[in-house]
Write a structure and sequence with these properties.
- The chain is α/β, with parallel strands linked by helices.
- The protein has two domains: 138 residues, Response regulator (Rossmann fold), CATH 3.40.50.2300; 106 residues, OB fold (Dihydrolipoamide Acetyltransferase, E2P) (Beta Barrel).
- The protein is built from seven helices and 15 strands.
- Helix 2 packs parallel to helix 3 and helix 3 runs antiparallel to helix 6.
């Protein structure tokens, strides 16, 4: 028996988007298409509104790409990428574990993809982590946009300026136009300082595999986390190794810890 599920289909080409919807209706009649999107921004908004189980995302869309939409969605849905034939993009997908479809979508290939999706949903298998593949695809789509991860920051400590290795930072907290930095010195002692930069400008320069934004004003080093306790109203608190501070996790970022 087919698994009942919901899906989002995003493609900036209406004819191809509608064709995929028709093909899905044929091969998986029980699947409910809860939203369609014409670009990456609409895909993000539609995902937040409907929380579908599966997202079919065109890789290259105006405004925000399917890759950027997928970075927002993360592991909260099973991802299937749809791409015009590009040997580099297809090679990247083939090396990763995520599903992809090449336009025009081949019915046999779609049927294989649907079977895998049905099996994952039936077995309640968590969605795959797309981060490494998405970074690779982002480089392929726009090499000029790649920002090298920040290695050091200069912070004010009293009347001196300290050069702090980003790897030593436990967390960063926004304070108006400045950012509070909490780090460990060479003796392992907990320290705090201030950077003359806004947190929103620092986030794109941090290594996404090591740092996670958990609140609109807080970014944490994942290796500094001791444990996370769930709170009321879909929030949580982060407890740090060797620190008394407790960092808030807002509802928007709670999905990062759902596998706890």
């Amino acid at each position: 028996m087919s698994v009942r599920a919901t899906a989002l289909v995003a493609d900036d080409e209406p004819l191809l988007r509608e064709a995929l919807v028709r093909q899905l209706a044929s091969v998986w009649p029980e699947l409910a298409i809860v939203a369609q999107a014409r670009n990456g921004r609409e895909a993000i908004d539609a995902f937040d509104d409907h929380k579908p189980d599966i997202c079919f995302l065109d890789v290259q869309m105006p405004g925000k790409t399917g890759v950027e939409a997928a970075q927002h969605i993360g592991r909260r849905a099973h991802l299937v990428f749809v791409t015009a034939f590009d040997q580099y993009a297809v090679q990247a997908f083939a090396q990763g574990a995520l599903d992809y479809l090449v336009k025009p979508v081949d019915p046999a290939r779609l049927a294989e993809t649907v079977t895998r999706l049905q099996e994952r949903i039936r077995a309640a298998t968590p969605a795959l982590d797309p981060e490494a593949l998405l970074q690779q695809l982002a480089r392929l789509l726009n090499p000029a946009s790649v920002v090298q991860p920040l290695a050091w920051v200069r912070a004010s400590v009293g009347n001196t300026v300290r050069l702090i290795a980003v790897g030593d930072i436990d967390y960063l907290r926004a304070e108006e136009k400045y950012t509070q930095v909490a780090w460990r010195d060479e003796h392992g002692q907990a320290r705090e300082a201030v950077i003359r930069a806004a947190l929103k400008d620092l986030i794109p320069q941090l290594d996404a595999a090591k740092f996670a934004q958990v609140h609109r004003s807080v970014v944490v080093n994942l290796r500094s986390i001791s444990h996370v306790t769930r709170g009321s109203n879909e929030t949580a608190d982060i407890h740090l190794k060797g620190r008394k501070e407790v960092l808030p996790v807002s509802r928007t970022y709670l999905h990062l810890f759902r596998q706890m």
